[in-house]
């Protein structure tokens, strides 16, 4: 028996629009089974995708996609959408190099109307699309699907505020779907709420309400009736705030009930102006393990047995995230001024144990990076020592606050930047490529790039004990396995260390090449240096740059090579070049780093190799640039 009988008949959303309600329900069962089976083979986001199966089916059944636009927020809940829009047979390549992206991408499909990976952008983008349709005279509908905590970001409310008013006398025809998968903030979903939702989205309710308004307008009863309606409606549904933004609020309804979803969407599709539908779903719906622990089953790092669940983590080298989490607890025990802050990434940033041990000093501010940074600034003003644990790619969202609220006031805030450099499967939206360039140009800011686990611990200690803002960048995953010193030891401020000195002199009587390595690329640089017989410096500090070391290497070597896992444009290599230029040293130089292009998703080691940042790539680049100056050291042949 073919368990995907209906699903395999779907070549695109047009096929869904020909299905009966009973067939759509069967399709949803098959789709959920397919997503679970597929992710168990590839890894990827799980709980959020299992929770959006019925919503995805309903949207593509009711709306004429891709002509009608559906914009998905955050983007990690779009696997069902991808399966139904012609990518089912390619889902085995999910998040792999050259394969299907784990997020919506405009280049991948016409059904992916807006690329995303960060949160809280859908309403803004959908408003732009809806008003563009008006300007172009096109009768199309636009839907923004927002959820998974994305409503906590200020940008979402900025967009709601803008979408609920007329632009040049014209209201946008758009629907915002709040996919609420946090039951604690919602009233129980039952027959009454379903009935109210159907009623409030239907023509009878709208006609009756508008008719009453016309009769009562310009009478003393009008304002009383308006207030009574809002008060009564607000008692049974949490929609008053969205009504105040200018939206017609409907809900909450059961987001797994197609008998409720489809007619409600059909009613709202035919209405003009801004509409708001509140649905309640369960993360991990249909998979008991994910329903029981939606945090754990948010995403799978790799293959897993769907019957056994996610495998137990194997003991091995600690990740940099674990190093940070351990350090945070140790430093908090040593200094009661420490406050830990995260914008909705408690697990991802390694702060679970810190919250358990120091609950009164832990703040999860939700998906609100701008607020997180300025909140930290306020704490620092009062003599506390905030540590903001934030992914490199998410700090971009709080950049104005970094400059305006922290750096200009020179406040001692520590930014622990996880996921610096290539992140792999999450791809372009999550890569930490730009932090070196955007931090080193800001006055009062310092930036440390540790090379391994022990140096990361020391760098964090060093940053915490400064009286000005300091960021520490470290990558996703584990380091080389260096033993950590348990004491809270500082690094010499602003000082690099010489890790390898060239052994031979060149034909003109001096050493040849010096490689200045920033961060964890120190270790592939050391491997390449063994073949090249090059000197290697562990730079540690991007800012302040150890200018004495840079000048020493430039004056004692024929060429300088810089290596960094960050954007070449404006990066650490640029800092070295600026130093040399400022001191009038015209030394041949090669800068290695991430290219000025959008990098694909895929295995991190493969991506590093593609960028020439593994040991072989560094060796090859140095050979090509300075080949006539080098005599490569090769191991003796066996036998």
Give the structure's gist in a few sentences.
The protein has 25 helices and 19 strands. The chain is α/β, with parallel strands linked by helices and 639 residues long.
What does the model show?
- The longest helix is centred in the first third of the chain and has 22 residues, at 21-42.
- This protein starts with 12 loop residues before the first helix and ends in a 13-residue tail after the last helix.
- The chain folds into 3 domains: 7-291, 3-Layer(aba) Sandwich (Rossmann fold); 320-473, 3-Layer(aba) Sandwich (Rossmann fold), CATH 3.40.50; 500-629, Rossmann fold, CATH 3.40.50.920.
- A 7-stranded mixed beta sheet has the order 9-8-10-11-13-12-17, sandwiched between helices.
- Helix 14 (320-334) packs parallel to helix 20.
- With 639 residues, it is an alpha/beta fold.
Spell out the key features of this protein:
639 residues; alpha/beta; single chain; Rossmann fold; 40% helix; 25 helices; 3 domains
Low-confidence stretches: 183-193, 505-510, 632-639
Spatial order of the strands forming the largest sheet: 9-8-10-11-13-12-17
Question: What's the main sheet like?
Answer: 7 strands, mixed
CATH architecture of the largest domain: 3-Layer(aba) Sandwich
Structural class: alpha/beta
Q: How far is it from the N-terminal to the C-terminal residue, by CA?
A: 61 Å
Tell me the strand percentage band: 5-15%
Number of domains: 3
Continuous helix count: 25
pLDDT averaged over residues: 87
CATH superfamily of the largest domain: Thiamin diphosphate (ThDP)-binding fold, Pyr/PP domains
* Cα-atom radius of gyration: 28 Å
Q: Please identify the top-level CATH class of the largest domain.
A: Alpha Beta
Shape: globular
Q: In total, how many beta strands?
A: 19
Kindly identify the CATH topology of the largest domain: Rossmann fold
Helix content: 25-40%
């Amino acid at each position: 028996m073919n368990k995907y009988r209906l699903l395999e008949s779907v070549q695109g959303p047009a096929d869904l629009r020909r299905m009966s309600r009973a067939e759509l329900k069967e399709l949803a069962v098959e789709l959920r089974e397919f997503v679970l089976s597929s992710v168990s083979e590839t890894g990827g986001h799980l709980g959020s995708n299992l929770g959006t199966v019925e919503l995805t089916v309903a949207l593509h059944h009711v709306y004429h996609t891709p002509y009608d636009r559906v914009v998905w927020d955050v983007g990690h809940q779009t696997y069902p959408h991808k399966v139904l829009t012609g990518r089912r047979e390619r889902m085995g390549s999910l998040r792999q190099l050259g394969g299907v992206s784990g997020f919506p991408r405009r280049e991948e499909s016409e059904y992916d109307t807006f690329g995303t990976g960060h949160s809280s952008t859908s309403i803004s983008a959908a408003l732009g699309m809806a008003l563009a349709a008006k300007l172009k005279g096109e009768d199309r509908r636009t839907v923004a699907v927002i959820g998974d905590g994305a409503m906590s970001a200020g940008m979402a409310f900025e967009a709601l505020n803008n979408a609920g008013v007329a632009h040049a006398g014209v209201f946008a025809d758009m629907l915002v779907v709040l996919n609420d998968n946090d039951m604690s903030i919602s009233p129980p979903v039952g027959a009454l709420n379903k009935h109210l939702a159907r009623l409030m989205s239907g023509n009878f309710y709208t006609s009756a309400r508008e008719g009453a308004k016309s009769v009562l307008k310009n009478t003393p009863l009008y304002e009383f009736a308006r207030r009574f309606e809002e008060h009564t409606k607000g008692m049974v549904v949490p929609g008053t705030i969205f009504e105040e933004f200018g939206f017609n609020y409907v809900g909450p309804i059961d987001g797994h009930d197609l008998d409720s979803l489809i007619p409600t969407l059909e009613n709202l599709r035919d209405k003009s102006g801004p509409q708001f539908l509140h649905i309640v779903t369960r993360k991990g719906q249909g998979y008991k393990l994910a329903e029981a622990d939606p945090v754990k089953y948010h995403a799978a790092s790799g293959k897993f047995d769907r019957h056994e669940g996610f495998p137990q983590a194997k003991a091995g080298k600690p990740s940099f995230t674990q190093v940070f989490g351990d350090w945070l607890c140790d430093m908090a025990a040593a200094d009661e001024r420490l406050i830990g802050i995260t914008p909705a990434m408690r697990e991802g940033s390694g702060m679970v144990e810190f919250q358990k041990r120091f609950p009164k000093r832990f703040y999860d501010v939700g998906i609100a990076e701008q607020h997180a940074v300025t909140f930290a600034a306020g704490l620092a003003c009062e003599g506390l020592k905030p540590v903001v644990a934030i992914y490199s790619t998410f700090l971009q969202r709080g950049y104005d606050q970094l400059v305006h609220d922290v750096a200009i006031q020179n406040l001692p805030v520590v930014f622990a930047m996880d996921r610096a450099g290539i992140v792999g499967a999450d791809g372009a939206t999550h890569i930490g490529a730009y932090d070196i360039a955007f931090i080193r140009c800001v006055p009062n800011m310092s930036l440390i790039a540790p090379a391994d686990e022990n140096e990361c611990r020391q760098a964090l200690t060093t940053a915490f004990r400064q009286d000005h803002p300091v960021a520490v960048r470290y990558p996703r995953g584990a380091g080389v396995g260096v033993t950590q010193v348990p004491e809270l030891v500082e690094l010499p401020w602003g000082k690099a260390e010489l890790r390898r000195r060239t052994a031979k002199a060149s034909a003109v009587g001096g050493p040849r090449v010096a490689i200045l390595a920033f961060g964890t690329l120190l270790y592939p640089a050391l491997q390449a240096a063994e073949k090249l017989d090059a000197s290697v410096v562990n730079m540690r500090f991007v800012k302040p740059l150890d200018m004495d070391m840079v000048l020493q290497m430039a004056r004692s070597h024929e060429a300088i090579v810089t290596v960094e896992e960050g954007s070449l444009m404006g990066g650490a290599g640029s800092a070295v070049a600026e130093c040399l230029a400022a001191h009038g040293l015209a030394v041949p130089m090669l800068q290695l780093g991430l290219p000025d292009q959008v990098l694909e998703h895929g295995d991190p080691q493969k991506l590093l190799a593609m960028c020439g940042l593994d040991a072989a790539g560094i060796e090859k680049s140095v050979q090509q640039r300075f080949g006539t100056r080098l005599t490569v050291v090769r191991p003796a042949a066996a036998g």
